[in-house]
Amino acid sequence: MPIRKININKPNNLPLPSIKTLLINFTFSLILGFLGPFGSFQMPFIDRFIYWFIMFNLGFFIYHLSHKATNWLFKNKNPHPIFLFVVPSLIAAIPLSILVGFATVQVGYQFDVSIPIFIILLPQVFLLGIIIDVIMRIIHERPSKDKKTLISQTFINRLPNHLGNQLICFEMEDHYIQVHTKLGSHMLLMRMKDALVELNDYNGMQVHRSYWVCIDAIENIKKESRKAILIMSNGLEIPVSRKYLSKVKELGLQPF
Question: What's the average model confidence in pLDDT over 236-240?
Fold first, then answer.
């Protein structure tokens, strides 16, 4: 299961509500208030903005709960990442369609009364929710992607040029560490604790007293007896010790 490629693979862990989140919600509300979808354009702009600020934040909360509930219900079933991306949005779109339908009728927008309003609105609300979800994920992922190109050069510069700079993991072997990148492997004479210091800001984590992994390179996770094993993009299997298991769970990996 890839973790960060637009990140439909990772559960939606949108923060509730931080200043950044509120500013993003305010911006989306302003855009929706300006566009006036679902008949709300008939309202004065200030009323329309207030209306969409309330609706957007209510929808944000409903989507958040829907993603959390879906991830919890299917946490031991290892569903396809697209399932965990689409299904919560579809579930959240149902109550939101009813709310939007009720609200738009109140402002005088006309629908075919022979068809329930929420049925007409459901695909529109669902599509809008998917678009906003993708934008939110991109916004929240951007800082970590920028970091990878700017930090940890001291450690990366220790590697031969032909191995590139895309780390997968490293493992401790006596006084050496075996470093694996997407282009190969290399042995460094280096203590693990020194390597961890140099990679402190890299998008990775220690998962065992002898292993460090790049989070982007985790493909999947499996259980063997009571042990968790990470499957890396190069096929290596990395054990997770009990001490670090909670940090791995925070990534939203399955199965747990």
Answer: 93
